[in-house]
Write a structure and sequence with these properties.
This protein has 261 residues and is of the alpha+beta class. The chain is 26% helix and 34% strand.
Amino acid sequence: MQKKKEIFLMIFLGIILLALNYNFLDYKLENFLSDSDASATVERIIDGDTVVAGNETIRLLGINTPEKKEFYYGEAKEFLSEKILNKTIIIKFGKDKKDRYGRTLAYIFLGPENVNLETVKNGFANYYFPSGKDKYYNSFKNAWSECIKDEINLCKKSEDKCAECIELKSLDIAEQKIILENKCNFQCELTNWEIKDEGRKKFVFPKFVLDSNAEVGIIIGNKTDTSEELFWKNEEYVWTRTGDTLFLRDENGGLVLWGSY
Protein backbone atom coordinates (compact mmCIF):
# COMPACT_ATOMS: atom_id res chain seq x y z
CA MET A 1 0.00 0.00 0.00
CA GLN A 2 2.82 2.42 0.91
CA LYS A 3 4.59 1.65 -2.35
CA LYS A 4 1.42 2.43 -4.34
CA LYS A 5 1.10 5.77 -2.53
CA GLU A 6 4.71 6.63 -3.43
CA ILE A 7 4.13 5.75 -7.10
CA PHE A 8 0.97 7.84 -7.18
CA LEU A 9 2.79 10.79 -5.58
CA MET A 10 5.64 10.55 -8.10
CA ILE A 11 3.16 10.51 -11.01
CA PHE A 12 1.32 13.51 -9.55
CA LEU A 13 4.53 15.50 -9.09
CA GLY A 14 5.60 14.59 -12.62
CA ILE A 15 2.34 15.94 -14.06
CA ILE A 16 2.76 19.21 -12.11
CA LEU A 17 6.36 19.64 -13.28
CA LEU A 18 5.36 18.93 -16.86
CA ALA A 19 2.56 21.51 -16.66
CA LEU A 20 4.87 24.11 -15.14
CA ASN A 21 7.54 23.42 -17.72
CA TYR A 22 5.00 23.63 -20.55
CA ASN A 23 3.75 27.02 -19.35
CA PHE A 24 7.33 28.24 -19.07
CA LEU A 25 8.18 27.07 -22.58
CA ASP A 26 4.95 28.50 -23.92
CA TYR A 27 5.80 31.87 -22.32
CA LYS A 28 9.31 31.77 -23.81
CA LEU A 29 7.96 30.89 -27.24
CA GLU A 30 5.41 33.70 -27.11
CA ASN A 31 8.09 36.24 -26.22
CA PHE A 32 10.45 34.91 -28.88
CA LEU A 33 7.78 35.29 -31.53
CA SER A 34 6.86 38.80 -30.37
CA ASP A 35 10.52 39.86 -30.70
CA SER A 36 10.90 38.37 -34.18
CA ASP A 37 10.22 40.04 -37.51
CA ALA A 38 6.68 39.80 -38.82
CA SER A 39 5.06 40.19 -42.22
CA ALA A 40 1.75 41.80 -43.14
CA THR A 41 -0.09 43.42 -46.01
CA VAL A 42 -0.52 47.20 -45.88
CA GLU A 43 -4.24 47.97 -45.90
CA ARG A 44 -4.26 51.74 -45.47
CA ILE A 45 -1.96 54.76 -45.42
CA ILE A 46 -2.89 57.20 -42.67
CA ASP A 47 -0.13 59.74 -43.36
CA GLY A 48 3.54 59.82 -44.30
CA ASP A 49 4.70 57.94 -41.21
CA THR A 50 1.67 55.88 -40.12
CA VAL A 51 0.02 52.89 -41.80
CA VAL A 52 -2.43 50.10 -41.06
CA ALA A 53 -1.17 46.57 -41.74
CA GLY A 54 -2.44 43.26 -40.38
CA ASN A 55 -5.17 45.17 -38.51
CA GLU A 56 -2.45 47.02 -36.57
CA THR A 57 -1.70 50.74 -36.72
CA ILE A 58 2.04 51.06 -37.27
CA ARG A 59 4.04 54.22 -36.59
CA LEU A 60 7.25 54.14 -38.62
CA LEU A 61 10.36 54.40 -36.46
CA GLY A 62 13.23 56.79 -37.14
CA ILE A 63 11.23 59.40 -39.05
CA ASN A 64 8.80 62.25 -38.66
CA THR A 65 6.81 63.51 -41.65
CA PRO A 66 4.83 66.76 -42.01
CA GLU A 67 1.43 67.11 -40.36
CA LYS A 68 -1.74 68.27 -42.13
CA LYS A 69 -1.47 71.83 -43.50
CA GLU A 70 2.33 71.63 -43.40
CA PHE A 71 4.50 71.67 -46.51
CA TYR A 72 4.89 68.23 -48.17
CA TYR A 73 2.22 66.51 -46.06
CA GLY A 74 0.34 65.24 -49.11
CA GLU A 75 3.49 64.35 -51.01
CA ALA A 76 4.85 62.31 -48.10
CA LYS A 77 1.59 60.37 -47.81
CA GLU A 78 1.51 59.74 -51.56
CA PHE A 79 5.14 58.57 -51.56
CA LEU A 80 4.38 55.98 -48.88
CA SER A 81 1.20 54.89 -50.65
CA GLU A 82 3.00 54.29 -53.94
CA LYS A 83 5.71 52.34 -52.11
CA ILE A 84 3.77 49.91 -49.96
CA LEU A 85 -0.03 50.14 -50.20
CA ASN A 86 -1.51 46.63 -50.77
CA LYS A 87 1.98 45.12 -50.64
CA THR A 88 3.42 42.59 -48.20
CA ILE A 89 6.01 44.16 -45.90
CA ILE A 90 8.44 42.92 -43.27
CA ILE A 91 8.07 44.58 -39.87
CA LYS A 92 11.17 44.95 -37.70
CA PHE A 93 10.60 46.10 -34.14
CA GLY A 94 12.71 48.54 -32.15
CA LYS A 95 13.33 48.50 -28.42
CA ASP A 96 9.87 49.96 -27.74
CA LYS A 97 7.00 47.97 -29.26
CA LYS A 98 4.20 50.50 -28.63
CA ASP A 99 3.90 54.26 -28.28
CA ARG A 100 1.65 56.07 -25.81
CA TYR A 101 -1.22 55.97 -28.31
CA GLY A 102 -1.06 52.17 -28.53
CA ARG A 103 0.42 52.15 -32.04
CA THR A 104 3.00 49.54 -33.02
CA LEU A 105 6.47 51.04 -33.52
CA ALA A 106 8.49 49.46 -36.32
CA TYR A 107 10.83 49.72 -39.26
CA ILE A 108 9.14 48.64 -42.48
CA PHE A 109 11.02 46.74 -45.16
CA LEU A 110 9.90 46.00 -48.69
CA GLY A 111 12.26 43.20 -49.63
CA PRO A 112 15.74 44.45 -48.63
CA GLU A 113 14.70 48.13 -48.80
CA ASN A 114 14.19 50.07 -45.56
CA VAL A 115 11.11 52.14 -46.42
CA ASN A 116 11.55 54.44 -43.40
CA LEU A 117 15.05 55.29 -44.59
CA GLU A 118 13.88 55.86 -48.17
CA THR A 119 11.37 58.42 -46.90
CA VAL A 120 14.25 60.47 -45.45
CA LYS A 121 16.40 60.05 -48.58
CA ASN A 122 13.59 61.44 -50.71
CA GLY A 123 13.05 64.47 -48.49
CA PHE A 124 9.63 63.58 -47.13
CA ALA A 125 10.73 63.17 -43.50
CA ASN A 126 13.38 64.25 -41.06
CA TYR A 127 15.08 61.63 -38.93
CA TYR A 128 13.52 61.20 -35.46
CA PHE A 129 14.82 59.17 -32.49
CA PRO A 130 12.96 60.35 -29.35
CA SER A 131 13.84 57.24 -27.33
CA GLY A 132 17.56 57.51 -28.10
CA LYS A 133 19.83 56.39 -30.89
CA ASP A 134 19.66 52.81 -32.15
CA LYS A 135 21.60 50.76 -34.72
CA TYR A 136 19.88 52.58 -37.59
CA TYR A 137 20.58 56.11 -36.35
CA ASN A 138 23.76 56.79 -38.33
CA SER A 139 22.28 55.62 -41.62
CA PHE A 140 19.27 57.89 -41.10
CA LYS A 141 21.41 60.89 -40.22
CA ASN A 142 23.62 60.23 -43.26
CA ALA A 143 20.51 59.96 -45.45
CA TRP A 144 19.39 63.38 -44.20
CA SER A 145 22.83 64.86 -44.93
CA GLU A 146 22.66 63.51 -48.50
CA CYS A 147 19.16 64.93 -48.85
CA ILE A 148 20.47 68.34 -47.74
CA LYS A 149 23.31 68.10 -50.25
CA ASP A 150 20.84 67.34 -53.07
CA GLU A 151 18.24 69.85 -51.78
CA ILE A 152 15.30 67.47 -52.16
CA ASN A 153 11.83 68.53 -50.97
CA LEU A 154 12.05 69.19 -47.19
CA CYS A 155 15.81 69.57 -47.59
CA LYS A 156 15.51 72.41 -50.10
CA LYS A 157 17.45 75.46 -48.98
CA SER A 158 15.62 78.72 -48.29
CA GLU A 159 15.81 81.36 -51.03
CA ASP A 160 15.21 84.19 -48.58
CA LYS A 161 18.11 86.64 -48.55
CA CYS A 162 18.29 86.32 -44.78
CA ALA A 163 18.94 82.56 -44.98
CA GLU A 164 22.65 83.41 -45.26
CA CYS A 165 22.44 85.82 -42.34
CA ILE A 166 20.86 83.85 -39.51
CA GLU A 167 23.12 81.57 -37.48
CA LEU A 168 22.49 79.30 -34.50
CA LYS A 169 24.78 80.76 -31.88
CA SER A 170 23.75 78.60 -28.94
CA LEU A 171 21.46 75.72 -27.94
CA ASP A 172 21.37 75.25 -24.17
CA ILE A 173 19.59 72.00 -23.29
CA ALA A 174 19.64 72.63 -19.54
CA GLU A 175 18.13 76.09 -19.89
CA GLN A 176 15.94 75.01 -22.84
CA LYS A 177 17.08 78.11 -24.70
CA ILE A 178 18.45 78.82 -28.15
CA ILE A 179 20.10 81.99 -29.44
CA LEU A 180 19.97 83.09 -33.07
CA GLU A 181 22.20 85.79 -34.50
CA ASN A 182 21.84 88.02 -37.55
CA LYS A 183 25.39 88.38 -38.84
CA CYS A 184 24.45 90.62 -41.79
CA ASN A 185 24.53 94.42 -41.87
CA PHE A 186 20.81 94.70 -42.64
CA GLN A 187 17.63 93.80 -40.76
CA CYS A 188 15.95 90.43 -41.21
CA GLU A 189 12.21 89.97 -40.88
CA LEU A 190 11.51 86.58 -39.32
CA THR A 191 7.72 86.86 -39.14
CA ASN A 192 6.14 83.39 -39.61
CA TRP A 193 9.52 81.66 -39.68
CA GLU A 194 9.44 78.50 -37.59
CA ILE A 195 11.72 76.51 -35.33
CA LYS A 196 10.96 72.82 -34.99
CA ASP A 197 12.46 69.86 -33.15
CA GLU A 198 12.64 66.33 -34.61
CA GLY A 199 9.06 65.70 -33.56
CA ARG A 200 5.97 67.92 -33.55
CA LYS A 201 7.02 70.75 -31.26
CA LYS A 202 7.07 73.99 -33.21
CA PHE A 203 7.66 77.67 -32.52
CA VAL A 204 6.34 80.18 -35.07
CA PHE A 205 7.81 83.67 -34.92
CA PRO A 206 5.28 86.45 -34.30
CA LYS A 207 5.73 89.71 -36.20
CA PHE A 208 9.42 90.15 -35.57
CA VAL A 209 12.44 91.89 -37.08
CA LEU A 210 15.98 90.99 -36.02
CA ASP A 211 18.33 93.95 -36.30
CA SER A 212 21.68 93.71 -38.04
CA ASN A 213 24.41 92.07 -35.95
CA ALA A 214 21.87 91.42 -33.20
CA GLU A 215 20.79 88.33 -31.27
CA VAL A 216 17.48 86.91 -30.10
CA GLY A 217 16.85 84.18 -27.54
CA ILE A 218 13.96 81.73 -27.73
CA ILE A 219 13.27 80.06 -24.39
CA ILE A 220 10.56 77.80 -22.97
CA GLY A 221 8.23 79.91 -20.85
CA ASN A 222 5.01 81.89 -20.62
CA LYS A 223 6.30 85.42 -20.15
CA THR A 224 5.61 88.33 -22.47
CA ASP A 225 7.77 88.42 -25.59
CA THR A 226 10.41 91.16 -25.76
CA SER A 227 12.72 92.33 -28.53
CA GLU A 228 15.65 90.46 -26.97
CA GLU A 229 13.89 87.27 -25.93
CA LEU A 230 10.91 85.31 -27.26
CA PHE A 231 9.04 82.65 -25.30
CA TRP A 232 8.06 79.21 -26.59
CA LYS A 233 4.80 78.94 -24.68
CA ASN A 234 2.80 75.96 -23.43
CA GLU A 235 5.70 73.48 -23.46
CA GLU A 236 7.47 71.91 -20.49
CA TYR A 237 10.52 71.16 -22.60
CA VAL A 238 11.50 70.87 -26.26
CA TRP A 239 15.15 69.83 -26.44
CA THR A 240 15.63 66.26 -25.14
CA ARG A 241 18.73 65.13 -23.28
CA THR A 242 18.95 61.92 -25.35
CA GLY A 243 19.61 63.94 -28.51
CA ASP A 244 17.55 66.09 -30.82
CA THR A 245 17.70 68.29 -33.92
CA LEU A 246 16.72 71.90 -34.51
CA PHE A 247 15.25 72.93 -37.88
CA LEU A 248 14.74 76.59 -38.80
CA ARG A 249 12.52 77.31 -41.82
CA ASP A 250 11.36 80.50 -43.51
CA GLU A 251 7.68 81.36 -44.03
CA ASN A 252 7.64 79.39 -47.30
CA GLY A 253 9.03 76.23 -45.70
CA GLY A 254 12.56 76.66 -47.06
CA LEU A 255 15.26 75.25 -44.80
CA VAL A 256 17.44 77.99 -43.30
CA LEU A 257 19.56 75.87 -40.98
CA TRP A 258 19.58 72.70 -38.92
CA GLY A 259 21.75 71.37 -36.14
CA SER A 260 21.76 68.16 -34.11
CA TYR A 261 23.36 67.02 -30.86
